[in-house]
């Protein structure tokens, strides 16, 4: 299995259970980080207004937050580059900066 170019999802799920590690998380985080949000905004379907509350699920895991803040801290990317390339809202990025201080301080 190690030398194969791909694995069936059922096989990968068995390995996840056996090793107690979520291999699917690697791919889902990649999809979330590099998803084309501009297309979603343009093709957004209008929803009907209801009296029920609507909840927004947080799309960003701690690993994604640490990755983005690591890019910022190392100087690899500026705040504006992160906002533009990853389509992270400006307020969200600034909240992360305040909430998760760097390890050096």
Automatic annotation (TrEMBL):
Cross-referenced Gene3D superfamilies: Homeodomain-like (1.10.10.60)
Show the InterPro entries listed in the entry: Homeodomain-like_sf, Resolvase_HTH_dom
A GO molecular-function descriptor: DNA binding
Q: Which intervals hold domain Resolvase HTH? A: 56-98
Show the SUPFAM superfamilies listed in the entry: Homeodomain-like
Quote the protein name from its UniProt record.
Answer: Helix-turn-helix domain of resolvase
């Amino acid at each position: 299995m190690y030398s194969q170019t791909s694995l069936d999802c059922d096989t990968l799920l068995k390995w996840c259970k056996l090793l107690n590690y979520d291999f699917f998380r690697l791919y889902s985080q990649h999809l979330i980080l590099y998803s084309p949000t501009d297309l979603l905004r343009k093709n957004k379907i209008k929803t009907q207004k209801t009296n029920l509350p609507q909840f927004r699920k947080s799309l960003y895991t701690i690993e994604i937050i640490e990755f983005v803040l690591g890019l910022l801290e190392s100087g690899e990317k500026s705040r504006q580059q992160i906002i533009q390339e990853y389509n992270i809202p400006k307020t969200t990025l600034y909240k992360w900066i305040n909430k998760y201080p760097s390890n050096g301080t």
